[in-house]
Amino acid sequence: MSYTMVTDESDDAMYSSIYNESPSADNGCTSRGKGSVLKKGPWTSTEDGILINYVRKHGEGNWNTVQKHTSLARCGKSCRLRWANHLRPNLKKGAFSKEEEQLIVEMHAKMGNKWAQMAEYLPGRTDNEIKNYWNTRIKRRQRAGLPLYPPGIHVEDMHWSQEYPSTSNNITGVDRRRHQDYMQLGNSKANVLFDDLNFANVLFEDLNFATSLLPRASDITDMFACNMLGTGESSSRYESYMPPILPSPKQLGGSGSRFNIRQEFQSPEQFQNAAPQKNPRSCNISDHPMYGNQHQSDVMIPDSHTFTDGMLPTSKPLFGAVKLELPSFQYSETSSAFDQWKTTPSPPQSDLLDSIDTYIQSPPPLEIDEPGCFSSCDTGLLDMLLHEAKIKASAKHSLLLSSSEKSFSSTACMTDATQNVPRGGETHITSAESPCFVFEAFAGNVVKTEELDQVWEPMRVDVIRPDVLLASSWQDQQGRFGIVRESNSMSDALALLLGG
DNA sequence: AAGGGGTGCAACCGCTGCGGG
DNA sequence: TCCCGCAGCGGTTGCACCCCT
């Protein structure tokens, strides 16, 4: 549905309305324009014209001065929003394309509700659009009883509750920001699993952060999985997948949200028989069955049905209550959805996004022997995917903006893309309290340039730092870890995502 | 044709970070 | 170092339009 809130009216009528019809004395814009209260509500075409002219003359920014220099009785925030969301050039209107939707889904799995960051990867789209799209998607799929994420996209974020143990029922604003930041970081470590259904074969695993606190992420992962597979008591598939994310103060204080999707585990018993027995503090990834070359196919999740086999490790009980909260993308769902997920045959390919979404939200954790080790390995492939998408988007955007030839050299691409990529020699990072993972990683041709192919050398990386790990384990040229089975698949996926 | 609920977009609101004085 | 104002972000709400009965 597309319609405009802008109304046509004469200047006189507009100015009359501007200065006389504000229903609220204070709408959050505390300043007053020309002695009058500021207008709120839908923008008129005349107001748009005034704002456009102002920006032409003065440029963006200094939004609070708009009302000083123009007859516009809008607060700076309102002007900025109007400009950013509707008036600025190069805005793309209309429905999201399939590629855009796909990218949003994947980015949300990766970043959470970081709408502004997502918007950076979608030129012409605003954070507001993306946010609205996502909220609409939540509602739509919730109504339909469908899982939110496509199969193979597995989102977990277990680390917050580990770094901020269950004490934090009233976190401060600073902590809230830390939470957000940590979520961002944590999401970069999120387990995101793509299956073969036209997606890249990607596996993201979280790093073993703060493993000494509370149940480890992998433990909870296993608990979720066991519950989901019927070994636990949980009847809700999504309960099983709830990562223990600390509630924000707003959420704790009740909500006026239309989507109050917070849930909690009712008791630790829900996790009975659901934790790994081993708690390795280090691992050699090359020895790991998941990443060793002997079980390559096991790494990936061809489709969700794999997990109906119940091939999951036994787990140990979770001690103590763990307050868990659904992130925004998760919601309660009846077991019927899970049943559907378990029994529905493969989707048709014609409508990839919707059909895939129909089947599962997130595949459970993989069959592993050493969950702690497994969860310590993060390919960071989506990071790079996003990075490359951003690069390409920027390039396209630059081309749009300027007719002059704006250089987008492979060198620049390489420089940018390899900022996080350690190369050459051994990187060894240690931490007094963190386990040190030692594995061999072969940085690959993530960015498909010859320069990169030439520059990136096989290397050995001792990693405990997520960025290093992310960068180092990007793509396995030799398929050594089975993280990405085929580089061509990755390229295809990128092409698919980027529409070219 | 009418009306009531659903849907989706636009805008508002509150909070935080940052930079300048 | 503190304070203040601005910019930006994410959550929330209002309302016009759609669609079904």
TrEMBL record:
Domain Myb-like per the UniProt entry, residue ranges: 35-87, 88-138
Leader sequence segment: none
Subcellular location: Nucleus
SMART domains the record matches: SANT
Domain HTH myb-type, chain residue ranges per copy: 35-87, 88-142
Annotated GO MF terms: DNA binding
GO aspect biological process, one term: regulation of growth
Coiled-coil intervals: none
UniProt keyword annotations, A-Z: Activator, DNA-binding, Nucleus, Repeat, Transcription, Transcription regulation
Membrane-crossing residue ranges in chain numbering: none
Domain of life: Eukaryota
DNA-binding keyword on record: yes
SUPFAM superfamilies xref list: Homeodomain-like
GO cellular component, one term: nucleus
InterPro entries in the record: Homeodomain-like_sf, Myb_dom, SANT/Myb
Predominant location category: nucleus
This protein's record includes keyword DNA repair: no
Protein name: Transcription factor GAMYB
Lineage: Eukaryota, Viridiplantae, Streptophyta, Embryophyta, Tracheophyta
